[in-house]
User: What shape does this take?
Amino acid sequence: MATYGDRAGPPRPRVPPRRARGAIYLDPFAAPRELMVFFEDTGAIFDAPLDRVWKYLHSERHGHAHARNARNFEVKETVGPTTLISAERHLHGKWTTFVSKSSDFPPLCIVVEEIEGDFAGTKFVILYRPEGNVTRLDVYGDVQSKTFPEPEARRIFLELLQGAYEDDEKAITELRHAGKL
Assistant: This one.
């Protein structure tokens, strides 16, 4: 029997590298209905060292920082590094419920999957890298939505991520200036 790496069986066809920002393509190994809407958002900076960013991410202040766009956070279950969270987010003038599964792997990354809601099936990873006294964030993912068509779903989801980044950036700046971070 032929082997490919440590998998038994014939080799899988090579897929060209995914380099384009916002590329839309059909994943040859996914279920037939899945259209992958890849996105990347790289180079965002938090003005704090990596250890302080993670201290903030695991503090109560982190959840409160997102109060303008999210509410009714409820931790449903925590197993190891993974937490199942239910909440409501403000979207298009109304509050909608979502459930997400978030796995923290400090100091490297957070991996998130939307389980229920407008973006169920969406998966993304936030990578954190130290760059001197600041922390760089790079986000890569796949947007899925049964509520919104592809171009709109991608735009709306990236706006949600941008809003979350701005909330965190503001909170981290305030905590640093107050000497609490």
